[in-house]
Amino acid sequence: MIELEGVPELIDPVMVAAFEGWNDAGDAASAAVAHLESEWKGEVFAALDAEDYYDFQVNRPTVFMDGGVRKITWPTTRLSVVRVGGEKPRDLVLVRGIEPSMRWRSFCNELLGFAHELGVEMVVVLGALLGDTPHTRPVPISGTTSDADLARRLDLEETKYEGPTGIVGVLQEACTHAGVPAVSLWAAVPHYVSQPPNPKATLALLNRLEDLLDLRIPLGELPEDARAWQVGVDQLAAEDTEVAEYVQTLEEARDTAELPEASGEAIAREFERYLRRRDGGGPTAGGHATDGGDSGSYLRDGRDGPGGTGPGGRTRPPKPPRPEAEPDDGDAGDDSSEE
C-alpha cells in the first residue's frame, strides 16, 4: 500500500508524465513537464527507488557540492503536484524521470499505485519521436489511445501501432488494463535536427495538452525560444545546400499531404483557440507552438538513437527581436504516431 503523507485531497486530478530517453526526441516531452513544474511551482512529494529500476552504468549518478558537502543525485522518477487555478481549478500530478533500465511492469504498477491513491481520473503520457518533418512547418502532434470510447469522446486516434515500444507505450497499455483512461501525445521532431533542446516541439505538446484538458498553461519564454530555435536552424540549413534542398523536399511533401486538411472544422478549431487566448490574456498571449521559432540546434542525422538525445549541443544563438505581430498558424495535423 502506498501512503502519501502531506498531499492534500486533489481536485479532478490528471497525471501527466514524460520520460527522458528513447521516447523523448530533442528532450521535447520531458521539457514540457519540466515547464509545468516550473511555471506552477510543483512540489515533489514522492520518488521511486532508483535501485529498483535503473542501471547506473547506463544512467550514472552525479556528484555535487552543497555547502561544502559532497552529495549524490541518483537517476530516478519523481512525482509532484501542481494546482491549476481559474474558474474550475484542478490538480495535475506531474511525473518526470528517465526511462527505466529494467522491471518495467513493476515500474508501471508503482506509478498506477500512486494514481489510484490520488484518485487520478486520466493519465496523459507525453512523447517525442524523430520524423520526416520539416522544421519550418507546424510541429505534427498526434494523440493516441487504446480506448475506443475515449478516442471518440476526445477526438483521438485509436492506436494501431505495431513494433518496438518504449516506456510510453508500456505505461499506456498498463493503464488500459487497469481501467485507467490513458492518452499519449506525440510530437514529431525533424530527424536532421534532433539535438536538444527543441522548444518548438515542447510548445506544440503544451498547446495540445491545453486543448485536451481544457486549461490554460502559462508559456513564459517558450514562444520566444521557439522563434529563436527556428531562426537558428534556418541559418544552419542555409549554409548547407544539400540540407536546404532536402528541407524544401520535405516542405513540398508536407504541404501536398495537408492540403485537404484545411477544412472548415480545422479552421474553426484554431479560431476557438485564438479566442480563448485573446479573452484570457496573460502570459500565454501570442504563444502558439506553430509560431516560427528559434533556439540554437545543430543539424544532425539523428543516429544518436531513436530519441536523438546525444550529449552536447545545447547552446542557443542570440534571440532576435520580437516581431510586432505574430501569426497563429494552427496546430499540426495528427500525422505522426508511435508507441
Q: How is this fold's topology laid out?
A:
Blueprint: E1 14-20, H1 28-39, E2 43-47, H2 50-53, E3 62-66, E4 69-73, E5 78-84, E6 90-98, H3 104-118, E7 122-131, E8 141-145, H4 148-154, E9 157-158, H5 167-177, E10 182-190, H6 199-213, H7 222-238, H8 241-258, H9 264-280
Parallel strand pairs: 1-6, 1-7, 7-10, 8-9
Antiparallel strand pairs: 2-5, 3-4, 5-6, 8-10
Helix pairs in contact: 1-6, 3-5, 6-7
What would your notes on this structure say?
Helices cover 34% and strands 19% of the residues. The two termini are 30 Å apart. The model is unreliable at 281-338 (pLDDT under 50). With 339 residues, the chain is α/β, with parallel strands linked by helices. Helix 1 (28-39) packs across helix 6, helix 3 crosses helix 5 (167-177) and helix 6 packs across helix 7 (222-238). It contains nine helices and ten strands. The strands form two sheets. It has an eight-stranded mixed β-sheet, sandwiched between helices. A two-stranded antiparallel sheet has the order 3-4. It has helices at 28-39, 50-53, 104-118, 148-154, 167-177, 199-213, 222-238, 241-258, 264-280, and strands at 14-20, 43-47, 62-66, 69-73, 78-84, 90-98, 122-131, 141-145, 157-158, 182-190.
Average of per-residue pLDDT values: 80
Query: How many helices does DSSP assign?
Result: 9
How helical, in percent, are the residues? 25-40%
Radius of gyration: 20 Å
The secondary-structure element order is: EHEHEEEEHEEHEHEHHHH
List keywords for this structure.
339 residues, alpha/beta, two-stranded antiparallel ribbon, 9 helices, 10 strands, 34% helix, globular
